[in-house]
Amino acid sequence: MVLRIFGFVTLLLVVLMPAHKAEATEGRAVVAVATNFLSTADALAKDFHHRFDLNISLASGSSGKLYAQIRYGAPFDVFLSADQARPEQLVDDGLAHEDARFTYAIGRLVLWSRKRSETELTRSEAVLMLSASKRIAYANEALAPYGFATVETLKALDLFEHLNSRMVRGENVGQAYGLVSSGNADVGFIALAQLTQRPNKGSYWLVDEKLHTPIRQDAILLNRGADNAAAQAFISYLRSDAAQGIIRNAGYRSED
Q: Which of 10, 50, 173, 212 could form a disulfide with 152 if both were Cys (CB 3.0 to 4.6 A apart)?
């Protein structure tokens, strides 16, 4: 898959403006993690520390921004992307090895409104809710796989052209979630994992996975982490039953 080529100035700004900063110290690995997975990665880091007495620092942002930061020398040891394309591209870039890449989670896209009592909507009810909404939040499709899946879904439903003028774009699903939770958007497309953390889920539609490309999220050990014991151990830990249980409980699917 060929990624969109950014202009030099845009890439430079991306590199200089990380969404969440982490610093490496001795005995610690720095993990770049897609925004949708940040809270789950935090839970994994705590369990990993408890089990192995090794430390993980997290740096979050959209997958596209993190990819650009890695290409420009950001000090990350592991990359937990929200897609497969960017880890694959890092292999092609010579910044990671193919044998250290695997799918750690499969994400689910949700259409969400906080205004109503907890109700799971049907597809037809979701379409009606979208049609009645003045502002619809979603993640930037050029940077965030959940945003790309949103556009694919709306096109599959023949709604994209009709709703395009009402779409409010955040950089990532974290910003899309914030737009809805703050009342600046009526509804939004977010990750199921974000919804599972809310005590009152509001109204939501679990998007049919047939409407978009599967959101397969790949992990990869970067060249910088090849000699880092904590990074190597964390990559191995992600495949374990303990880690996969935490990931499933957060609202993701595991590999079949």
A: 212
